[in-house]
Amino acid sequence: MADFYVRTKIYSGKSSLDELNSLHNQKIMLVCDPFLDGSAELEMIKSHFGNDNQVKVFSDVKPNPPLDNIKLGLEIYNQYLPQVMVAVGGGSAIDTAKAIRFFGEKVNNSKLSCFIAIPTTSGTGSEVTNTAVVSDEANNSKFPIMEDYLIPDIAILYPELVMSAPKSVSAFSGLDVLTHAFESLVAQDANLFTDALAEKVISVIFSKLLESYKRPNDYALREEIHQASSAAGIAFNQAGLGIVHSIAHQLGAVFHVPHGLACAMTLPYVIEYNAQDPKCCAKYAQAARKAGLVSGSAGDQVMIRKIVRNIRDLMRAMDCPQSLQQFGVDRKDANEATQRIISDARADGTFPGNPIVPTDQDLEMIYKKVIGN
Is the Cβ–Cβ distance between 217 and 6 less than 8 Å? Predict the structure, then answer.
């Protein structure tokens, strides 16, 4: 059975923040990245709450949200007992808010009346998904919390918040969007609805990401990439992901590679691996044709090579390292981590979504290519 649903109401554009004006007489817990606390952007968002609401800010958010910081946020949640949670920031801030909510509702046997996500990066799609990825720093590992009730009720896509992002963030997060689209396209639970979103996102990223990277103040480009990020999030939340993310999560946990970059390093090799399945190969090729990567009637295998080349060209144009060695990881250290990477990738929550079940040898082959020459 194929099912498709979008739990989140999405508001996009210049007036999207006006949706916050509907909150009245609420205790609001606002979770945000630390650099946003006290900023003009956050004050602008808070100005939409009105004087009849109470607002408590938690800004001690770390990249790859560690459990220790989530515990600090949980202490505030337990004392304050908010009715509404608003998450403002990148994927780490939204995931932190989800994790605080997850534990806070369990501890207090309560339920938020509304959860609102306002992303400041165009990448994770966390504003429309059921997943929070949390880091256990004591054990140097990552694990996902996956519950449908964690999907935000409202997502506000306000492009002005994305325009000030550093160029590296725009690049890495955009490549994360591309990975979400390619993985959801061939994932185990993909269907016509998720395919339509994934194919459109692939087209948008290949045609618009580099221009957006070069012209960060172009509102129309930023809005389109921002919307593509959410569209990809909807697609993979339904269809699933695969071993790009299984491996990338370990690259982040062990070597602290930014998530979108870790995905982009791994994506070409997983596409080549999955393309041995004729159905996957055909779906990749069809998406590439719709994206206009090749004109005429090139064969499917030619399209796979074209996809891989375009990913690498895009990374090169945005000054992205394409291997662990280019990122600065010593080859010896990377090789020594091989068995751990393989074991933890197999245990990762995204692993079952891959269209082909890889052996340990397959995972090692892919990982060795990510290490680089």
Answer: no
